[in-house]
Design a protein that fits this description.
This protein has 2 helices and 16 strands. The protein has about 200 residues and is mainly beta. The protein binds copper (II) ion.
Length: about 200
């Protein structure tokens, strides 16, 4: 029972980390392309006021989503908004105008953690004794593969340069038990449960 609870807490923690917060500064004269971002559905953008003037962050005409910070004044003020719909979101400062302060947040449908967990990524065999094959829906670049025990300790940590459609790892040196396999690449993270025998 205690172990199950620990696993649950651990999985929830990992799930929350999969969403990314992107930071932008927000001051008079801050415009495209510096003010533009491309993010995944579910990501948050956080604007931080870097001058002492009053500004708003608000969606402009044609934006997919509707958001408005209201007027905030002062260095260090922040406004965060989580984008939940695929689309294009031009935004500006309602006080200084789109000619002085504006950008575009493009929201794309990333590969969601759930899709990966449930369908696309397969660990075979599972349970595994020595050679584990991780089948992937696409080649991953610039990532990492970690095997983590239930106390959170990383027992194996490999860099992924170019995975191809599968990654083979040798787990024969890892002692028997339940583990989490975590793939991290770009802004995505995938976690799957693995039993080593
Ligand atoms: Cu402004």
């Amino acid at each position: 029972m205690k172990t199950k609870l620990l696993v649950l807490v651990f999985l929830i923690t990992i799930g929350l980390q999969a969403q990314t917060t992107h930071d932008l500064i927000w001051e008079r004269g801050f415009e495209s392309p510096e003010a533009d971002l491309t993010i995944d559905v579910g990501d948050t953008v956080r604007w931080t006021w870097t001058d002492d003037l009053p500004h708003t962050v608000e969606n402009n005409t044609g934006s997919t989503e509707t958001f408005n910070s209201g007027v905030l004044t002062g260095l260090g003020q922040t406004y965060s908004y989580t984008f939940t719909v695929e689309g294009t979101n031009p935004y500006f400062c309602g006080i200084h105008g789109a000619n002085n302060m504006s950008g575009v947040i493009t929201v794309q449908q990333g590969l969601s953690v759930d899709e990966f967990n449930d369908v696309s990524v397969k660990l075979t065999p599972n349970p595994v004794h020595s050679k584990l094959t991780i089948k992937l829906p696409q080649s991953l670049t610039n990532g990492s593969l970690k095997v983590i025990d239930l106390t959170g300790k990383v027992v194996l940590n490999n860099t992924i340069v170019n995975s191809g459609n599968a990654i083979d790892i040798n787990v024969s040196d890892i002692k028997s038990g339940m583990y989490l396999v975590r793939l991290e690449f770009n802004d995505n993270a995938i976690t799957k449960r693995l039993i080593i025998q």
